[in-house]
Write a structure and sequence with these properties.
With 288 residues, the protein is an alpha+beta fold. The protein has two domains: 156 residues, 3-Layer(aba) Sandwich (Rossmann fold); 114 residues, ANL, C-terminal domain (GMP Synthetase, Chain A, domain 3, 2-Layer Sandwich), CATH 3.30.300.30. 22% of the residues lie in helices and 26% in strands. The protein has seven helices and 16 strands. Strands 1-2-3-4-5 form a five-stranded mixed beta sheet, covered by helices on one side. Strands 6, 7, 8, 9 and 10 form a five-stranded antiparallel beta sheet that branches. Strand 6 and strand 7 form a beta hairpin.
Amino acid sequence: MSGSQLAISSGWDGWQRLAPQLRPTLINTVPSIAMRLLDLPPASREMSRLRLVGCGGAALSADAFERFRLRGITVIQGYGMTETSPVICSATPENARAGCVGTPVAGWQTRVDAQGRLAVRGEGVMIGYWGDSDTTAQRCIDGWIDTGDIVEVDSTDGQFRILGRADDRITLANGRKLYPLPIEQQVMGIPQVRHALLVAANRHTELWIDVQDCMEPKNWGDVIKRHLCDLEAWKLPRRIFIMPQSLAEIPGMLTAKGTPVRPRAIAQIRIWQNDPSISAQSIGAAAQ
């Protein structure tokens, strides 16, 4: 930090209060704030000197990553958890890529099992959960903590990709399994989409999207299929639904970081599925 000035603020209100005065060159934030920065003019006082955005807590979409790049701003993403104090992985300005969280930082050992589940060991691992020795014993064994996250490791440079929580895995009626997070992130690369949730529907999946008001294209199926063109056919959601109410308007549906609380959001979707007034759009035939 030699020669630098450090300021701490909270939320969008904090940014609006301090950023025009300080004109930051680097910020560490979460995606919900980062997305709002892209709505600000590049020449505004708060944005004119910004060159580096550190983003964590949730994934930033590839579209937002590219929009920052076109402004001359590099996004570095990281990964960690409260129980690890917290950073496990971090990208650098030199290796930053959309969808990747970098390599493990100094002091961490990592272990990925056959299912892709990540465990880590290092001095930053917590002593335990206060007053909950049973959960501590389940999560921490011989210094290793089970993160509960499913990851991929890029064979070219060792960067990690977070595929989602192990508990979020979708098992279809035909036995096929997939993790929804990477697909949802691709859909959220569409500027009009605020949130996206993939849910099981027999042998296939269906996609529920929370879109900005008055910005619905005539055929969401075509728009989303273009964004998911790299997926295997069986992974494509068979139907698309527009959420009749924004998740932000329903108490308890979003975390402090602005991401859906998945169990609650899925429960709400199950209620909407029984509403005959909510119609679906087709995305085209999927593999059996």
